Amino acid sequence: MSNPQYWNGQQPGRMAPNNFFSLEPYRQRKDASRVSIIEKYDVLGYIAAGTYGKVYKAVGKQHANLNQLYAIKKFKSDSKDNQVLHYTGISQSAIREMSLCKEINHQNISTLKEIILENKSIYMVFEFAEYDLLQIIHYHSHPEIKPINKSSLKSIMFQILQGLTFLHENWILHRDLKPANIMVTQNGVIKIGDLGLARRFNNQLQTLYTGDKVVVTIWYRAPELLLGARHYTPAVDLWAVGCILAELLSLRPLFKGEETKMDNKKHMPFQENQLLKIMQILGTPTVNEWPTLNKYPEYHQLQRFTMFPSNLKAWYTNNGGVDEDCLDFLSKLLIYDPNVRINSLNSMSHEWFKQDPLPVSNIFANSTMKYPKRRIHKGDNDILGPVNNNNNNNNNNIYSNKRKTNLNNIQPNLNMGMNMNINMNDLTSSQKRNFASFMNNSSNIGFENAKRRN
After folding, report:
1. What is the spatial distance between Cα 453 and Cα 447, in angstroms, rounded to a whole number?
2. Could you confirm whether 212 is annotated as catalytic?
3. Residues with Cβ < 8 Å from 219, sequence gap 6 or more?
4. Which of 170, 305, 421, 427 has its Cα between 20 and 30 A from that of 155?
5. Whether residues 80 and 116 fall in one domain
6. CB contact at 8 A, 109 and 166
7. Active-site entry in 176, 194, 337, 382
């Protein structure tokens, strides 16, 4: 253990000054050691934007990451013209994504490199993936239809299931699987991304519905969720996988329904059109094939629908499908009853994956397609925002000792260990609860040592 006399470069025989551990000197030492995100990364522009904020493409500038590509996810703050007016805390989605991503490590899940907190903004730095499945599907469907070859199709699905099995074995639901959230690297490796809606589902104190009433993008939402399930299982992710497989086969969404928007936060509308789209292909569910169907809160809504027969085989044939094993696999993913629906681990052992061509580690290996790279929007490549333009030439000014909000009391350069240094006395009650939740998730997940579920 280090001798206190030597801390902070003190000479032998000299004790640390009396104020060494007080707040202001501590802040000065931390400010002096901080490195701005623009010093570590050269931002090329943003590649995606959404309600969460923006994702930027960047190149490493320091010796350890020189010329390596990264995707930097910047969470949106309460702002006007990119100038932060006030800080209201870290969103539940951001806390979940940070706490989960920093603990998990798998070849088919996007790798989090670090988290940086700077100037009241949160940045998650991920490995860069040049493509996503939505981009690939669009390329194959425009301007003319170009079917995805069998080798690529199997390899995509198998790698998705490998990543999903890892999540489920470690008690994590993704809850937002869709083509746009399935990344593909330049080397043809699938990476499941965007864990903003992901949730641990062991040792629940409340139902999953209590915390998040709306999960999964509507076209990929499982029927049990559409019927108002308060309790659900990893089967919701497998339904989404089935929808993704169908979309890869036909190059268009399988169940493209119109979402009914919420009229208020207390009343959840019944998604009639989406359920109709499902029944037109899979047929109307019955209690005989789904014994717990009448237990769902929205079961009575089924009375308004016409009885439809199952048309999945006809849909498959009309879209050029000839492989019976593939149809069987698709039908097992799209079973109404979640208790019967195939799980991710058993999916990888399905007969379809045992037939030639076998899945490979590079989904592009047996393809002649040359996919265009992600489009970069260069109109906004100032990742720090206009408020910091005057400081870009003097990075020391970026880290002023004046703290206007509590977020600046957090150590901004977090590695995979992600130790946080927070002055809890400066935080509001809401912020204290958020950070307590973040730290609790960080210390108790233990994914690497989790055992497989039966």
Report:
1. 13
2. no
3. 178, 243, 253, 254, 255, 256, 257, 274
4. 170
5. yes
6. yes
7. 176
